[in-house]
Amino acid sequence: KAAEAPRTAWGDPDLRGTYTSDNSIGVPFQRPPQFGTREYLNADEYVTRVNANEVQVEKDLNALPESKFSADDPAAINASRHWLERPDQPSRATSLVVDPPNGRLPELTPEGEQHQAQRRPRRDRGLPGSYRDFSNYDRCISRGVTGSIIPVIYGNGTEIDQAPGFVVIRNEMIHEARIVPLDGRPHADAGVQMWMGDSRGHWEGDTLVVETTNFTDRTGIGGNGNGAVHSTDLKLIERFKRVDAKTVNYEFTVDDPHTYKQPWTVRFDLYAKPGYKIYEYACHEGNYGLKNMLSAARAEERAAAAAKK
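The structure assignment produced for this chain is given below.
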């Protein structure tokens, strides 16, 4: 009930805390067709998901002597364990997309399809020629608003802080922080475009509603920012609502008529995982990984030229 929702000292609904979307790891972004319009797994399906999560955790730990899985299992991820995150209580959702009702992304417009062809990194056409052939994420620039919060393999933390008239939303990866005014001020001038857009917020009951505009046309909507590249006219509506002491329900709606034939919505929970903290994510533009990938591509070219001779 609204009267029972925790409040800040100045009277706003209290969303403050550090959360993670880890419980939604493994939930398909789009709903597999066999589920139709069903949003949640049944009991048997959920047991299958829980068991699969436990098996994957065991595969992640394959370097341990007692593991029954081979270290060369392609499903095993051999990074240090502290890099990996898995659900404590896997979500029952059949997909992250909840609208349209079938959980599938709407079709791209002809303009949207043309935009994808122009904006996609060129490295899938062969060896990368320059930094421009890599994604914004590869280059440690930004994953965009949605890419910074959609659950991936690690780095799924979100910290929410509040002060009178403002909310701060900080994402663990790649170290984004949005300061969201709540005082009704207008958006920045249309000529100003930013990787994370320009956010303005207001309260609808106990729900924080954040409207973001003023985007570039160089970020995608999906995990790590790898989804379809949106237009500069994208309007993103996010909703944050605390549903219990440890859980904030989160959803965003994408409204971009230049890219999609209709708006669509994603929903999942952010929860306060015991002991979860956000540490520095030291990814920076011009990092050595990018330099090494480009130098490796040049080495491959030299080797190919030598083999021809």
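Interim note for the steering committee: The helical segments are 43-60, 110-119, 144-147, 288-308. The longest helix spans residues 288-308.
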